[in-house]
Amino acid sequence: MAYRIVKWVMAAAAVLYPALVLLLPAAAGLRGDVFAWIFYGAYVLITVMVWAIGGKATRNVGQGIDKNEVNKETKITQEVEMSKSRWSSV
């Protein structure tokens, strides 16, 4: 839950920063500062990377896997390998 809040706060800050710098007279010093815009660009890239994390990374290892289907495939593979070894010994 906290991860979602952090993601949304980072996104809101990334969207609001240019608006605040361009509209507030108190932030007029940051408008022409190249380093401030470089740091902003890095922050936006980090925010995009944080948003890209997720999906499968938040699931448990065995979640979404049908164990019965895996067991059937394993048994079929075992039978095929055993039949190969029987015929190779003849």
Shape: rod-shaped
Order of helices and strands: HHHH
The radius of gyration is 27 Å
Count all strands and give the number. Answer: 0
Distance between the termini: 62 Å
| Percent helix range | over 70%
Q: What is the number of helices? A: 4
**Low-confidence spans:** none
Biggest beta-sheet profile: none
Strand content: under 5%
Task: Determine the structural class based on helices, strands and strand pairing.
Answer: mainly alpha
What does the average pLDDT come to? 81
Description:
It contains 4 helices and no strands. It has 90 residues and is mainly alpha-helical. Helix 1 (2-23) packs antiparallel against helix 3 (34-52).
Question: Can you summarize this structure?
Answer:
With 90 residues, this protein is mainly alpha-helical. The chain has helices at residues 2-23, 28-31, 34-52, 67-88.
Give structural attributes.
single chain; 90 residues; mainly alpha
Topology:
Layout: H1 2-23, H2 28-31, H3 34-52, H4 67-88
Helix pairs in contact: 1-3
